[in-house]
Amino acid sequence: MSADDAVEQTEQPWSRRRLRSTNERLLLDRLRAEGSASRAQLARETGLSKPTVSSVLAALQEAGLVHEVGTHTPERGRMAVLYAPDPAAGYALGIDIGRSWLRIALADLDGEVVARSDVRNRARSSGAMAELVVTTARQVVATSGVGTEEVAHSVVGTPGVYDEERRRVRYAMHLPGWGRAGLFDRMREELGIPLEVHNDANLAALGEYTYGVGAGSRLFVYILIGTGLGMGVVSEGRLFTGAHGGAGEIGFLPWPGRRKPETLEDAVSGVAVVESARAFGMTGQLTAKAVFDAARQGQPAAVRAVRLEGERIAHTVAAAAAVLDPDLVVLGGGVGHSVDLLLGPVRETLRSLTPLRPKIAPSRLGEDAVLLGALATALGTARDVVFERRTAS
Fold it and tell me: What is the Cα–Cα distance from 110 to 339, expressed in whole angstroms?
């Protein structure tokens, strides 16, 4: 008789339930982290006896948390059944709210996206934007064929910092009315799904750490450059958000410009690229993308504007390097699409600003960084919720 079996026989009923739940979680986490396995393999790797592994797997299978995924016949021995987590045991919803685009995706517990929608954000009020989020999220869930009750958790990425106590977003300067109290409570109620709110740059950093170039980094910084300027920090795989959620709001740093007061966001955002291009002589209806496209074609004013943007981004990187000492800085957001033009000026200017020179890389996830970070965060909670629900019943 193994030690775990002996403990199970001598402990009180409530303790046996707790031990069984611990063993269930142990096997489920192993299968999720390492992939499918047989009962014998799980017994070897966890130290549980084969009868205990069989009993726990049977309970997990009955709860709909694991399923059989095939068989394996070793060189010596009998054919063994392979088990893996059932991805359809529950679902998670990720939502990225930006000034120009709303992106929503539904994923199963394996992280596989089963439905997605990207829509233009044409809302002109906070109420209309909240309605657009709810309507689009409902459509995504309906398209997938999944029932709302099967969606265990959702996470929203938004500019600004969510104040849990006051039930509102602060510092979302580019989304008019978005700081109104109760907007997210309304979305929770209308969706009928638990909803958690995070800063978009923080989620982009987490997404890049989980799925992109940040994987394995000890401490890395994601700089989100688009309509505004934000920064997310991941240390040892965990987000660093500060005492009040404002860590990474690097756009508020003062900047010595023509206007007073002027901030780093005023100097580095996509709007700043357009303003610089106009100052250097470009005319017509300009966007940051148009300026970068013109720079690729060698248009002198555009080339100067892009170089100036690179120099200003270098100041942003220098500030982050001095305070955080990251081993990697990732450039992302709308302006991140043109990192090929920016890396030269950024690195050259950085050498003249500071002896601290972290590795600089473009985002691998592009415009999906916030959405994937929201999904990764939602999945972490959804897996716990589904486990508790199904093992309790």
Answer: 32
- From residue 194, how far is each of 130, 144, 186, 187 by CA, in Å? 15, 19, 12, 10
pLDDT digits (tens, 9 = 90+) for 6-15: 444 445 665 7
Taking the C-alpha atoms of residue 183 and residue 175, their distance in angstroms, rounded to an integer, is 13
Cβ proximity of 105 and 82 under 8 Å: no
**Partners of residue 119 on adjacent β-strands:** 102
Locate all alpha helices (DSSP H) within the chain, ordered by sequence. 3-10, 13-34, 39-46, 50-62, 126-144, 183-191, 200-211, 264-268, 270-279, 288-296, 300-324, 339-353, 369-392
From 64, 363, 2, select the one nearest 206 (Cα to Cα).
Answer: 363
Backbone dihedral angles phi then psi of residue 236, each to the nearest 5 degrees: 55, 40
Strand partners, 68: 83
Please state, rounded to an integer, the average pLDDT across all residues of the chain.
91
For residue 124, give the 3-state DSSP assignment.
Answer: coil
Q: How confident is the model at residue 375 (pLDDT cuts 50, 70, 90)?
A: very high
DSSP structural state of residue 298: T
Most distant CA atoms of the chain, gap in Å: 84
Q: Are 98 and 64 in contact (CB under 8 A)?
A: no
What are the distances in angstroms from CA 345 to CA 231, 297, 303, 351?
20, 17, 11, 10
Residue 261: cis peptide before it, omega within 30 degrees of 0:
yes
Q: Residue 299 region, left (φ>0) first, then alpha (ψ -120 to 50), else beta?
A: beta
Up-side HSE of residue 337: CA atoms within 13 Å toward CB?
13
